Here is the input.
Amino acid sequence: MKVLCIDDNRLLMEGVKKHLSNTYIVDTAPNGYEGIEKACSVHYSLILLDLNLPDMNGLEVCRLLRSSNVKAPILILTVQKDPAISAQLLNCGADDYVTKPFNSEVLKARIAALLRRSHEVSEEKIIKVHDLTMNITRRKVWRSGVTIALRRKEFDILEYLLTNHGRTLTRSMILDHVWEAGTEGWNNTVDVHIKHLRDKIDRPFGKSLIKTAYGIGYMVDDTL
Here is the structure.
């Protein structure tokens, strides 16, 4: 899952990234315009939004995100404790808020609660290609009825491949989708993760779903 943190406090963003990186892929934006651009071009599971940004107010960012049909839960980070401000935040499309300074465990708990709530109100998203089934909402994978345990990046790569089954995805596309924005990566990184995926979802079952487009990238074959 990808989380976007929009905040101009570099130290705070680095701290948030450090505490969340074991569970989420965290992208950052130092101002409202860059945050809106990222949120509208990349699918994020949740957005952390500072109320006081250098270029615009967080309330305005929130309204613009909602008017741009960004549906990810928005968790506001604010020093404001005024109930009237809290009501404004919720009325402009935010889902919850935490007041600064906050404990990292409290932040994690609020994020988890928002993600659970968003999954509960939406239908479970399931993709099935031949005998391989992925429940994206519950992050579960089965093949021929056998449950397959995947690491986080393995799951994210497979989700990307299955969502685009029948289409070749380049290594660069996979890197951009699964790793943090701006991460320096190597094609070999993708190749290693694909090998691990094949060891788990292809080799034990006799038929390979993940195909190599030599010199280009990978795809999930939907024509078997």
Summary: The chain has two domains: 2-121, 126-220. The mean pLDDT is 86.
